Amino acid sequence: MNESYRPCRTLMVSLYLLCGCAANDATDATVTPDVDSASHDTSSTAADVGPTEYRDSMPPSRPDSGETPTPIFLNTSEGIALIEPAFFEPVFSAEQPFIQPAEGVCDQSLQFEPEPEFNGFWFSIETLGCDHGTAKTTLKQAIRAGQLLVVRFFHFTIVRGDGDWALTLAIGNDPEQAETVHQVTRSVPAPTNVIRSEWIAERNYSAGETLWWNARNHGLNSWSIMSLTAFNPSEACELTDQMCSSQPNCTFLGECAVTAECRCKPREDTHCAKSKLCELYGLCGALNNRCIAIDDASCAASIHCEDDGLCAKSGEECLATTELFCLESLVCINGGKCTPQDGHCIAATDADCEGSQICQQNGQCSALHGTCLAANDEDCADSAGCKYDNQCSAVDGLCVTL
Fold first, then answer.
1. Pick from 258, 257, 253, 259: which is nearest to 272 by CA?
2. Which site among 33, 54, 76, 330 is 20 to 30 Å from 397 CA-CA?
3. Which residues have C-beta within 8 Å of that of residue 297, sequence separation ≥ 6?
4. How crowded is residue 229: how many other Cβ atoms within 10 Å of its Cβ?
């Protein structure tokens, strides 16, 4: 079973760096790293889970031809937002475009939620005990053949599991006729990461058509979709450093300079040091046109050190490497995730959960899948939710009113 950990966090510091990107995703294209970029020591520890930049993966039905792709140039950092992530809705039936595993459609241990961020919403699928989930929304704008389409996903650290995991997009109102348009696959292990993936639209799609999103993995994971954006390719690159530095992703992700591939990326340490990636996650240095952790001090000064115990540099990210980091974090006090495992704080035992606010308030007092859940009615019985709101019955890990 794969495990990715989604640290508990307060609303004000939740991943707001990932929002407001729908109209500014020229920074979202995945490109081959620039070997001339700034160099930092990225030596690994046992908790290191690898690099934070990946190459696109297309649907299996469209294998790589082996030919060198024609460069895709842009003349603007402003894209056309194709979706509103807050408007996704879960799909619990078999009427969807994706082949279901042998165990069938998940209807338990699966959570969907739109979450408010700094400048908008992103939508997440938390699979918990189930290994796949599907959500759908509608296209707010038409897609034209030949447009560059850019999708942005986010996931937390994935440290164990057999085989790859996949995020797949399909378009079409009839689930039996919907066409798979893009798929991103990643191998385990994989670090906390913003995934930027792009492809060229092969045909036209109408505004109002259904967009389907499926997350397939190996168990407890959290996946989020931030944006899907269209760009009209240009005959020559007209992006400038000034255009990159004036768009929100410069502030959010340090993507403040234009590269040879005609994309906005972090090129210098100062770009990352001034970004929300540094403030939130301690990713304060530039390497191969991306932001990475460069020292323990930057990790310790980050918001997610206080919130989630991610206080020490490990490889290219900040992780929880000691029990003390977890015990002093808000994710332990509030969520019962007090034990370090594979670089993140988890609920390893019921004792972790029993002293937490989520147990006292919500009755989530049993450790399951690395998080605190309500395993039975006894967990709910002593909670404030049972006492004041009659939420005394445990259903799918939560205390509810029956």
1. 253
2. 330
3. none
4. 26
